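User: Modeling request: complex.
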Amino acid sequence: MDDQQGLIWFGNLEEVAKKSLDYLKKKDSFLKILSWGVDYSIWPAHLMTSCCGAELAAASGPRFDLERLGFLPFGSPRQTNLILVEGTTTIKMARVVKRSWEQMPSPKWVIAMGACAMDGGIFFDSYNTIVVRDYLPVDVYVPGCPPRPEALAQAVLMLQEKIKRQRQDLIKTVD
Ligand code: SF4
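Assistant: Request completed. Predicted assembly structure:
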């Protein structure tokens, strides 16, 4: 009810909202808009695990400008939906990365960047390091030592493609 305007809303608003949502979910355009919104809101947690982080910095600069793809690092895990692991993670640092991942809302994704994140790289079989797949579900791998910023841009595009394919699953999270 709006006292100023004298408007009164009748009916069960919760039921009306549910019926509207059910109707929209059947419309392909609604799915496309939702998917587009998620695709272009890839917000990684601002974590630097190793030297590949310099390439992330370059990718965020004006020459490569990943923000044009909706890729924008945030300081708090609670406002993010992507963990980007840049290279090596020590076992000690992996605990911090895992805790950040657990604080992030769903849906969320993981990109493992660099040879060290994929299989250990130059730290292969080291006593104090761990590869990303052993503590997080990786969506996209970016090979190289270090990978170029273009490779990171390609990984973001591939992740967007994956999100499009998961469109139906995303709709279920709206319920
Ligand atoms: S892949 Fe190369 S650049 Fe990246 S963290 Fe490992 S050693 Fe450093």
